[in-house]
Every structure is written in structure tokens, then in C-alpha cells.
UniProtKB/TrEMBL annotation:
It comes from Bordetella genomosp. 12. The keyword Transport does not apply. Part of the MsrPQ system that repairs oxidized periplasmic proteins containing methionine sulfoxide residues (Met-O), using respiratory chain electrons. Thus protects these proteins from oxidative-stress damage caused by reactive species of oxygen and chlorine generated by the host defense mechanisms. MsrPQ is essential for the maintenance of envelope integrity under bleach stress, rescuing a wide series of structurally unrelated periplasmic proteins from methionine oxidation. This is Protein-methionine-sulfoxide reductase catalytic subunit MsrP. The keyword Metal-binding applies.
């Protein structure tokens, strides 16, 4: 998102040494805890080896043919405002994020509300690898091999009631590790929202990894959303709470700039952002001076799969 910077500080206040020290302390704590609990095997190892393998079975039906964006770019050019506003801030600062212990509460209009431990979620369904486009509202895009499974798999566990019309996603707000929370850029914690049928669509993915590895913290560890037909800000990172609701809540971006970021945020080249066109995009990694921009596709290229969700809806009024 493009917004005014409140201050030049943010992530630069955290020195690499501090990040490193925090992470090392935590790694030692979790290793000690795992030893004390007698845990062994890949689950406890992965808790402190942040580049641990997390393979997924490739799903051709959910794999776009585009060339994949290099891992280096995917993991170093990020939006994660809790860690700063510059694209390099999350990779520099998010090492401090505490990703264990971690739970996700699924609650609200459900028959069986439940708090899931991250390690239970990792085992809830077989991991799939799906290659999705991600199109940021700022006008750039990437192609990322995500690892995870459909969000619907999780939602079905809690028996949504007939009143569940919307799903709100609440993300982590760790005062101690997230320097961005000191600035009122957004109404923290960062929240997003989908309609229930969007949340249940098989393309909507709960993501735990990318490129066959556990998610780098800057990409939203230990779990995030990927909603490939919507602008990137809908794909909330580091989820802690999922609320099924009867009334539509407002998301953090709707509160911050309602005229710019609507409820739907479907990728739509025909509806310009109030301050710039959305007709084309720059694919990260392809950006030589002579490289033409790519035309942005309706629903980010996923129209065949999702257009039916919006039949009869005016997509200019409902942006
Ligand atoms: N919690 C949280 N989630 C977030 C954001 C954020 O600032 N905080 N930024 C969003 C935006 S604007 C984009 S484009 C994508 C970027 O995901 P990536 O850094 O993994 O490419 O994350 C989205 N999810
Ligand atoms: Mo974005």
C-alpha cells in the first residue's frame, strides 16, 4: 500500500545484533523446551530451524504456468507493515517474530469453537504445493509456490452455523517484536475479511510454507492466507484468530482509507485505484528498463474459477 510515512524510524531502530540475539535466545529456549518435553522428530526440529523443509504435493489444477519468482525476491521484497514500511524492512526485522508457541482460535458463528495449536494445523491435512499469482495493489506481482491446504478444510472442523456470512482474520500484534505497531499507520492488529463463500472457495488457501520450506517470518509465519484473485493485502499474515460472523466487519485497510480499499478488493484492471491505474503490473524479477509491464488480468487470471461468486454484483461500486 502507498501511504505517508509517519517517521523515518521503524525497523531501522532494531539492530541486526538485537534481532540475532532475540532469535538465538528463543531458539535455545524452544530447543530446551522440546528436550524437556521429550519431543523429537521433525515437528520440534522445525520449531527452531526456520529454513526447514515443508514439501507439498504439487496440484496441477492450482498451478499457473508463469515463471516462478526467485525465492530471493519472494523473501526480501515484502509488505509486512508491523515490521516497517520499506520493502526490505520485514526481511531485516521479522527474524524476531515469535512463532512458537502459536495458536489459532476459530470462533464466532460455529458449532464447535476451537483453539488449534500450530503443530495440529500442520497435521490437519496433507500439504499441497500450489503456484499462485500474487498481485499487490501497488502495481507489482509475483508467482509463488505456496505450501498448505484450502482454508475450507479448517473451517469445516468447527461446524459453521447458518448465520456465518463473513469471516474475519485477525493477525498477530507482538509489541515486543513488531516495531511498526508504535505507529498508527493502521488500526492494529491488521485484520482482513472475506465473505463466507469466498473463504470456502477451494482456491482460498491457508499457507504454511513456500518453495518447499517453512514460511520465512517476513512472508507471514507460521501461517497466513493466500487469496489469489484479490489484491495482496487480503492475504493476511501471521494469523491468530479467525472469526465467523453474521455482520460484515470492517478491515484495517477499510478503516484507514475506505475510498481506496473496499471490502472486495478483487483484482480488476477496469477499476483504477483513486490515485493510479490498475491496468498493468510489474512482475518482480522482470523489471529491466525495457521490459514492458504486463496487462493485469480480471480476477488476476482466476476469472474461470471465481467470477460466478460475483454474478449480479456491480464490481465498480463493490471494489
Ligand atoms: N499482517 C499483515 N499481513 C499482510 C500485510 C501486512 O502489512 N501485515 N501486507 C499485505 C500486502 S499489502 C501484501 S501485497 C502481501 C505481501 O505478501 P508477501 O510479502 O509475502 O509477498 O501481504 C499482505 N498481508
Ligand atoms: Mo499489497
Amino acid at each position: 500500500m502507498l501511504i505517508r510515512k509517519p517517521s523515518p524510524l521503524l525497523a531501522s531502530e532494531i539492530t541486526p545484533e538485537e534481532v540475532w540475539r532475540t532469535r538465538r535466545d528463543w531458539m535455545m529456549r524452544s530447543a530446551a523446551a522440546a528436550a524437556a518435553l521429550g519431543l523429537s522428530g521433525w515437528t520440534s526440529r522445525r520449531a527452531w530451524a526456520d529454513d526447514a523443509a515443508l514439501p507439498g504435493k504439487p496440484v496441477p489444477q492450482f498451478t499457473v504456468p508463469d515463471k516462478q519468482t526467485a525465492f530471493k525476491d519472494v523473501s526480501s521484497y515484502n509488505n509486512y507493515y508491523e515490521f516497517g514500511l520499506d520493502k526490505g524492512d520485514p526481511a531485516r526485522a521479522a527474524g524476531a517474530l515469535k512463532t512458537r508457541p502459536w495458536t489459532v482460535s476459530v470462533e464466532g458463528e460455529v458449532g464447535k469453537p476451537r483453539v488449534f495449536d500450530i503443530d495440529a494445523l500442520l497435521k490437519l491435512a496433507p500439504m499441497e504445493e500450489r503456484v499462485y499469482r500474487l498481485r499487490c495493489v501497488e502495481g507489482w506481482s509475483m508467482v509463488i509456490p505456496w505450501v498448505g491446504y484450502s482454508l475450507s478444510t479448517l473451517l469445516k472442523q468447527v461446524d459453521p452455523t447458518g448465520n456465518a456470512k463473513y469471516v474475519e482474520f485477525v493477525t498477530a500484534a507482538q509489541r515486543e517484536t513488531m516495531p511498526g505497531l508504535r505507529y498508527p499507520v493502521l488500526d492494529w492488529p491488521y485484520t482482513e475479511v472475506l465473505r463466507m463463500d469466498e473463504a470456502m472457495h477451494p482456491l482460498t488457501m491457508l499457507v504454511f510454507g513456500l518453495y518447499g520450506k517453512v514460511l520465512p517470518n517476513q512472508n507471514g509465519a507460521p501461517l497466513r492466507l493466500a487469496v489469489p484473485w484479490k489484491y495482496g493485502f487480503k492475504s493476511a499474515k501471521s494469523l491468530v484468530r479467525i472469526r465467523l460472523l453474521e455482520q460484515a466487519p470492517r478491515s484495517s485497510w477499510m478503516k484507514a482509507a475506505p475510498q481506496e480499499y473496499g471490502f472486495y478488493a478483487n483484482v480488476n484492471p477496469q477499476v483504477p485505484h483513486p490515485r493510479w491505474s490498475q491496468a498493468t503490473e510489474r512482475r518482480i524479477g522482470e523489471d529491466g528498463i525495457f521490459t514492458p509491464k504486463r496487462p493485469t488480468l480480471m480476477f488476476n487470471g482466476y476469472a474461470d474459477q471465481v467470477a460466478a461468486l460475483y454474478q449480479g454484483l456491480d464490481l465498480r461500486a463493490n471494489y
